[in-house]
Amino acid sequence: MEDIKWIFFDIGYTLVDETAVWAQRCREQAQTDEARALGLSAEQIYAEIVQASQNYLPQYRTVVRKFGFSHPAPYRHALEKLYDEAPGVLQTLSEAFCLGVIANQTDGLSERLRAWGIAEYFSLVVSSWDHKIMKPDVRLFTIALEQAGCAPQQAVMVGDRLDNDIEPAKKTGMKTVWCKQGFGALQSPRSAESVPDYQIESLADLPRLFYT
Length: 212
Hints:
- The protein has ten helices and eight strands.
- By secondary structure, the protein is α/β, with parallel strands linked by helices.
- The radius of gyration is 17 Å and the shape is globular.
């Protein structure tokens, strides 16, 4: 990729493995009185999340609405795990590019980045919590580009979801890399705008796109 100045990253299933989070969330939801009354197992709830992802729908909110859960199980950040290769990849890329974050996250993202030991690599962090805008709203991407002082053609978005990351980034004119990890890896492009410019099987494959 030529003339790239900024590389933006999603967080969940891009830099951070959420596998344990979602397994626990499904277990806790299955243990609620509402889920038991419906005869729902953790495996069935997980399958509903997978289907929502494949259908380009919000993952947990879709499940909550479908079954009418009044007490959704919490998302437990403590169970998130930074992918082993993330620090090395970020360090390598930060030597030649400015790095940023564009992510749907709850409050405290900057603190979590510091706890994972990767905050130093990011010059800019744009979170849905801070701006009260959630991906796939293109405004979150526009805000990031404006704050970076970067033209869309000089930026790349790296994310796991075609709906939340690839489509809106392409609408702004950014280059895109689909990191096929987590639920997003189960999606299929639904239009020209959801076809990524590049795709990788894991975060470890990312540097080769910029250093070949």
